[in-house]
Structures are given as structure tokens and as C-alpha cells.
Amino acid sequence: MAVYVDAAIWKWAGHRWCHLLADDTDELHRFAAELGLKRSSYQGPPKTSAPHYDITGFERDRAVRLGAVECSREEIVAIFRRVRVPNGKVKR
User: What is the pTM assigned to this prediction?
Assistant: First the structure.
């Protein structure tokens, strides 16, 4: 399993942001905890169909050092599609 980040290009609230995704939601939460992210910043069903965290460019740099795979825009979109939960329902 892997954890992925795209480029920190989205400007908001004085920072540049990107997405942190993983092949598995448990792996995503474990990695996010290792980064020091609060679980409350998780975005997943039913709020969004693809389980992920929005992280700052600073957090992205740390994520890459911890082993996250850097992805292009096209690659991260493909990952979003692969991990998305149909109809916003949690996979069991």
C-alpha cells in the first residue's frame, strides 16, 4: 500500500495546499497521525467521496520525507477515482 501527495498549488488562507491520499483508509489515518494531523481534518464520506486530507506545502514536504509518493495532477486524479467511495458510502 502507498500514500500519495500532489503538488501544493491550491492557495487558501495564506498557504499552498495539496491532497494526501492512500490506497487504504486505515493507512491514510495512520500516516496522517504520523504527520501530526488531527483526525478532525480528515475529509471523507459523506462530505466527499474520496477519503483524503488537505495538507499544507510544509506538511507535504514532511510527508514526502516520510515516504509519501509524489504525484502529478493526472496521477492524483486517477488515485481519487480509484479510492472514491461510490455514493459516498463507506466500504465495508
Answer: 0.85
* Residue appearing with cell numbers 488537505: 54
Per-residue burial over 66-83, b if 16 or more Cβ lie within 10 Å, else e, is eebeebeeeebeebbeeb
H or E element in which residue 17 lies: strand 15-22
Distance (Å, whole) CA 10 – CA 59: 14
Q: Which residues pair with 20 in a beta bridge?
A: 5, 53
Peptide bond into 46 cis (omega under 30): yes
pLDDT tens digits, 33-51: 999 999 999 998 888 888 9
Strand, helix or coil at 42? strand
